[in-house]
Design goal:
Radius of gyration: 15 Å
Number of domains: 1
Order of helices and strands: EHHEEHHEE
Strand order of the largest sheet: 1-2-3-4-5
Strand content: 25-35%
Mean pLDDT: 89
Distance between the termini: 46 Å
Length: 102
């Protein structure tokens, strides 16, 4: 009997509102934003509650021979962070581009 103990990633797909923002703001293709994954946490911006996002491309992580399964993994490899952003309760979205220049 062969047992597999592969650890599943905690990363989630990016919410549709965030994908739309990234496509519009950074002129990205739908296929690219659909492939992105993120780690979400609660936070505050200007004393208002927000969801904070750290976004990465699993494709780029694999090319770098990295297995990003937890937010701690991503924090140890900031070079694979593509975007960082937030979304408030009213649906206002803001992201910063953290991709390395080519």
């Amino acid at each position: 009997m062969i047992l597999s103990f592969r650890q599943r990633s905690e990363a989630k797909s990016l919410p549709e509102e965030a994908q739309r923002y990234l496509r519009r703001r950074f002129m990205l293709q739908r296929e690219y934003t659909e492939d992105l994954r993120c780690f979400e946490s609660d936070g505050f911006f200007r004393e208002q509650p927000v969801k904070q996002f750290l976004v990465f491309s699993p494709v780029m992580a694999r090319k770098s021979h990295l297995a990003i399964r937890t937010s701690s993994d991503l924090e140890q490899h900031p070079e694979v962070v593509a975007f960082e952003g937030r979304m408030d309760d009213d649906g206002e979205v803001h992201f910063s581009d953290r991709r390395l220049p080519i």
